[in-house]
Amino acid sequence: MKAWLLTGLLLASPALAQENPLLPSETWEDLRQTVVGLDEEPPLNSAILDLEAPMRANDAAIVPIRLTQPTDAPPIDGLTLVIDENPAPVAAEYEFGPALMPLDFEVRVRVDAYSDVRAIGDLADGGKVMSGRFVKASGGCSAPAGKDMAAVEQSMGQMRWKSTMQDGRSIGTLMIRHPMFSGLQRDQVTLLNIPANFIDRLQVRQGDELLFSMQAGISVSEDPVFRFAYDPNGQPITVHAEDLDGHVWDQTFGAKG
Q1: pLDDT at residue 5 tops 70
Q2: What CA–CA distance (Å, rounded) separates 128 from 80?
Q3: Which of 59, 112, 170, 181 is the most buried (most CB within 10 A)?
Q4: pLDDT at residue number 177
Q5: Are 161 and 239 contacting, i.e. CB atoms less than 8 angstroms apart?
Q6: How far apart are CA 134 and CA 51, in angstroms?
Q7: Residue 114: which pLDDT band, with cuts at 50, 70 and 90?
């Protein structure tokens, strides 16, 4: 629990230094069409979407990413998070409900090599917008897991939820225990590769209304934490999570946590 609290403090800290704009990327030129399916480069426009990330990560396996919008920005229905130089560059695809607008959403990711980290947002009118930062980090996708296998089995799927008020909006924090094995890590006892197993589908609702959903790859960090601003409707928070091994977890929390 203490580690989760420390994570919350990390994500809730003031904006990180932003002297690290996207750099020219030959990798992205290939990914843009073949992996992300974009024929044209989306415009960079911080008046619609911004991405905050550290210039140099303290831990390549736990890199905080914050996605924000100004209060008057048009809503974003969905978003693709891409880490150019990761073995599986598409870190996650999100769908956002109206209660999360304007967007203020945080997640932690793994970064495997010095890389641009970019978010491509889907606007309601069918347009696209992009934001990103260049992050200096390496080895995040193969970094050893933080717990032994017995501890993993015992705690996998445990969840915590809390909701507080900040600057006039509700701030929800969802924490899920899961090793999010990337398939590139080794068991520290047997030295054998650990098969990939991560939460690849997640859905969070308040009552019947969608807050957000996520379809993830190998790049979301161990014990994922999601922190986001939202407009509450007074209904319970329900979480549905699935991982590659077929585990399914459902949990309901009171609206106030």
Answers
A1: no
A2: 11
A3: 112
A4: 96
A5: yes
A6: 11
A7: very high
What one-character-per-residue DSSP string does 36-97 give? S--SSPPPB-TTT-EEE--SB-S-TTSEEEEEE--TTSPPEEEEEEEETTSSS-EEEEEEE-
What ranges in 68-227 are assigned the alpha helix state H?
A: 149-155
* Maximal CA-CA distance, the chain: 54
pLDDT for 2: 41
Within 8 A by CB and 6+ apart from 188, the residues are 144, 145, 148
What CA–CA distances, in Å, run from 17 to 14, 56, 131? 9, 10, 15
Please report the pLDDT score of residue 256 as a whole number: 74
Task: Yes or no: say if 96 and 212 are a contact pair by the CB < 8 Å rule.
Answer: yes
Contacts of 171 (CB under 8 A, 6+ apart): 12, 163, 164, 165, 227, 228, 229, 230
CA 218, distance to chain mean position in Å, is 11
CATH number for domain 2-253, candidates 1.10.3720.10, 2.60.120.290, 2.60.40.2470, 3.90.226.10: 2.60.40.2470
Domain ranges of the chain: 2-253
Bridge partners, residue 121, by sequence = 79, 129
The DSSP call for residue 197 is: B
Strands 248-253 and 128-135: unpaired
Q: Is it the case that residue 11 has pLDDT exceeding 80?
A: no
For residue 51, give both structure tokens: 């991405």
Residues 202 and 216 sit within 8 Å (Cβ to Cβ): yes
Rounded to 5°, angle at Cα 3 from 239 and 133: 75
